[in-house]
Give the backbone structure.
Amino acid sequence: MRNRYLDLLRSLAIIRVVVYHVTGWGTLTLLFPAMSVMFALAGSLMAASLDRSGAPAVGRRLRRLLPSLWVLAAIFVPAMLLTGLPLTPKVLLWAFPVADPPANYWGALALSPIWYLRDYLWFVFASPLALWLFRRAPWPTLLAPYALLAAIEVGMLPNAPTVLRDFGLYFGAWLLGFAHHDGLLRRMATRVLVPTALALGAAGAAWIVTHPGPRGYDLNDMPLGNALWSAAFILVAIGRAPASAAWVDRNALLGRAVTVLNRRALTCYLWHMPFVVALTPLVDVVGWSHQDPVGLAIRVALVFALVGVATVLVGWVEDVAARRPPELLPGGRPRAPAGGSVVPVSPAPAGRAVVPAPRASEEHTLRISVR
């Protein structure tokens, strides 16, 4: 039985990511640390998959993850090759991004969300061992990523690779997803969970206030503050998740929107940033600015409309990857089989700064984090 509250949470996370990338409002990262929430939900789903299938769950998760990327790469990689990206063996990373794949001057920003898939792949690979460790020593395992990130942030590991840094930043959220799946968070007494969340939130806030980034209090510029603040948010938002949220489907429009965003979460995430970048020239042509609320509202609406078009055109790939009958728009009326009974349709699980453009002839690795 699907927990529609968690589906709603994932939908809100997708919406927040898109709005943030259009507006650049760092306050949104504080109000809703969407990426950590998405990793926590993914961690819970991964633990459930491992319980059902064991180690083969890793392959099944990759099968659901990669086809949507391949569709994106089939369009944008040839376009980058024609506009200055050198053809080297590293281009193959677009098929299996265990490291940052190469991009040219415009692709480095338009395709920057690929970092999420890179981290997701590594977390999936680590999950069988991590879940085994978590169930034998839950608290040391849960604290390990935060200790790693703290060591990196205070300079003990100054040359830590990007993937290791992101393990410290986001794998703690993934493990909190394990804790949610196993009921550990639910079993925590409120008198323990709430003070723990408050302590983590206070520690995160203290780090954020004392270590502002180039954009002020944007969590993407402060990894340790991000991890601590996000952990506090997850403890409350997911640790006290209701067993169900039937009210979501009482409103047909809301229920359909939540279903579509969950079944097309990866499509929405991968495709929104190219549209954000494509619409950016409108700021100069039309005269909009980030201080113009009407202009921002129009740009947000346009990006969502274009993402909707992409969802209809290529989102069905997520159905094929999940071995579901492909649909242009999920969540429609259930189909009645020949016998006359109606088979219910339930949703299946979904899953930093703008820099000056370099010369077209240069090759760049996707290390920009647009989160």
